[in-house]
């Protein structure tokens, strides 16, 4: 990409300076600079200080299908791999060649999946940079010993990310799902989007039509409308269907990318010890539509035990008191 800039110079002769990335012409009191930059060396444009244009609607760097590989190495190796993209502390990545259109927070409900997390952190940034997206990955880890609660970690991730920056788009993401086509763009439209439509563990399909698990993208406005997500699904299952019910209550429909784009690799894994099937999930689902007004962002309670701003992502540790949380939801329900 070629950029041209002009400024007044204190030098009065005629000089032409050539370098690999730029040509600078000094003529009388004028300085004209022609700069060439490419995504392969994204730091150049930052140094020039030239104001950059809005990113195009479609990134020129997309490659279509690509393969998921396990990463052999440590988090430290990944830090080095991404140094050239100069993420801000906490892992805020920005395309350096243009001004992104949205600020994306990727929220990962998490506990004790280090191998999956390293694979995620290895796999995602290159794709997101090709998509010219500004993004931060937030890993929201629920402290032990309470039973894992995925949707609760989604609420917490949303609230905590907004304390860090004014994100406009939120993608809630399983740590063990890896997109394998970069035309599946990690941005929000005005509608909520279910992105995982061709999932390897279901032979690159979905288990049922209304399925809403794995990866969903919500603009901030939609999360406000649905009062976030339910706080009450402790254990595996049900919470994804609950998300779908909330949308119906506020009169919204989710959209999906075409199946050729919404493809995800999903490594086989066993069930986690701290996440047994939620025994009350069918009962909760039965009144999901009524609970939306009092079970969500307006009744969530939690404590942040630690925030770690790592080089390439932000790791937030959360302590949950189930009894307090359930009481808070109950109190909200009784409010006139
Ligand atoms: C399915 C859904 C998932 C969710 C879940 C039911 C797919 C592809 N995914 O996933 O979206 O609805 O069923 O709750 O259909 N996690 C941890 N540590 C734990 C437990 C869970 O990090 O101890 C996180 C992690 O991000 C994981 C996600 O929660 O990817 C979903 O849990 P899972 O992978 O055990 O459930 P799975 O694969 O059946
Ligand atoms: Mn899984």
Automatic annotation (TrEMBL):
GO terms for biological process: carbohydrate metabolic process; glycosphingolipid biosynthetic process. Residues 193-269 form the Galactosyltransferase C-terminal domain. It is found in: Membrane. The keyword Transferase applies. Keywords: Glycoprotein, Glycosyltransferase, Membrane, Signal-anchor, Transferase, Transmembrane, Transmembrane helix. GO terms for cellular component: Golgi apparatus; membrane. Its main location: membrane. It comes from the Eukaryota. GO terms for molecular function: galactosyltransferase activity; N-acetyl-beta-glucosaminyl-derivative 4-beta-N-acetylgalactosaminyltransferase activity. Gene3D superfamilies: Spore Coat Polysaccharide Biosynthesis Protein SpsA, Chain A. It is an enzyme of class 2 (transferase). Pathway: Protein modification; protein glycosylation. Residues 55-189 form the Galactosyltransferase N-terminal domain. Catalyses the transfer of galactose onto proteins or lipids. Belongs to the glycosyltransferase 7 family. This is Beta-1,4-galactosyltransferase. It comes from Patella caerulea (Rayed Mediterranean limpet).
């Amino acid at each position: 990409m070629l950029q041209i800039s002009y400024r007044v110079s204190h030098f009065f002769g005629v000089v032409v300076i050539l370098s690999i990335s730029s040509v600078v012409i000094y003529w009388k009191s004028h300085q004209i600079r022609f700069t060439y930059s490419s995504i392969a060396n994204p730091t150049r444009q930052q140094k020039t200080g030239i104001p950059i244009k809005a990113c195009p609607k479609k990134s020129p760097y997309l490659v279509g299908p690509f393969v998921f590989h396990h990463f052999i190495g440590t988090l430290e190796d990944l830090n080095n791999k991404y140094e050239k993209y100069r993420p801000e502390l906490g892992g805020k990545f920005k395309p350096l060649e243009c001004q992104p259109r949205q600020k994306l927070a990727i929220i990962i409900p998490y506990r004790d999946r280090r191998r999956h997390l390293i694979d995620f952190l290895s796999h995602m940034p290159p794709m997101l940079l090709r998509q010219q997206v500004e993004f931060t990955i937030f890993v929201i880890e629920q402290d032990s010993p309470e039973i894992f609660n995925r949707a609760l970690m989604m609420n917490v991730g949303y609230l905590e990310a907004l304390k860090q920056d004014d994100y406009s788009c939120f993608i809630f993401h399983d740590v063990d799902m890896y997109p394998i086509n970069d035309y599946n763009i990690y941005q929000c439209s005005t509608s909520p989007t279910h992105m995982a439509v061709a999932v390897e563990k279901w032979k690159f399909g979905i288990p049922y039509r209304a399925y809403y698990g794995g990866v969903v993208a919500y603009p901030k406005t939609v999360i406000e409308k649905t009062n976030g997500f339910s706080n009450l699904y402790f254990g595996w299952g049900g919470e994804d269907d609950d998300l779908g019910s909330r949308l119906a209550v506020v009169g919204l429909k989710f959209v999906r990318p075409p199946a050729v784009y919404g493809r995800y690799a999903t490594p086989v894994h066993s069930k986690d010890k701290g996440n047994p099937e939620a025994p009350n999930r069918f009962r909760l689902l039965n009144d999901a539509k009524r609970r939306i007004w009092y079970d969500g962002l307006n009744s969530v309670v939690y404590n942040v035990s630690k925030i770690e701003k790592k080089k390439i992502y932000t790791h937030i540790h959360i302590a949950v008191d189930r009894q307090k949380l359930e009481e808070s939801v109950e109190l909200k329900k009784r409010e006139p």
